[in-house]
Amino acid sequence: MQATRLTLICHARTVAQKLARFPTNEPLEMDWQSAHVSRRHAFKGTPRLLCGPELRTQQTAALFGEEVEVVAALSDCDFGQWHGVSINDLQTSQAVALQAWLDDPTSATHGGESVVQLEQRVAQWMKTLEATPGHIVAITHPFVIRAALMQVLQGTAFNQIDVEPLSAIELRFNGRWRLRLLGNDA
């Protein structure tokens, strides 16, 4: 039986990311049109290419191929009233609500989707892939990738992590330890 291989790729940088703002349906910061299908040969064979419905994921997916399936389950977390708002502004105007959201994964103080709801959505989508052999490349968002990682790392995570030769992982501490997945954004 052929295994399911899921490669999750975070969309290319947007101005909202650069300015530490919660996302809107913004385009990529880069000239993605001139780079159209420039990463087509990033994978052996022809993987099934999926992306979230947002403009930034569709533009990023166009770097990898022309036949892209838009999947609602890959959409970004719904940040409710915080769409487009900077983290700094929230720390000033809604500090208690922001901290509650950061501390409690069931909290949705912004009026949108909680982290737990996002994790459930992503878990259901991943369950549908379990019987889908072959390579799937999904262009999505940092929060969706985090939710997918939580599905993989639950319980005793130590033996569920494969470390390939010359692979790299970056950990950063800024009040708490964070895992950083390194990209090669041009």
TrEMBL record:
Superkingdom of source: Bacteria
Protein species of origin: Pseudomonas fluorescens
The protein in question is named Phosphoglycerate mutase
List the SUPFAM superfamilies. Phosphoglycerate mutase-like
Q: Which Pfam families match?
A: His_Phos_1
**Upper lineage:** Bacteria, Pseudomonadati, Pseudomonadota, Gammaproteobacteria, Pseudomonadales
Where in this chain does the entry annotate a coiled-coil region?
A: none
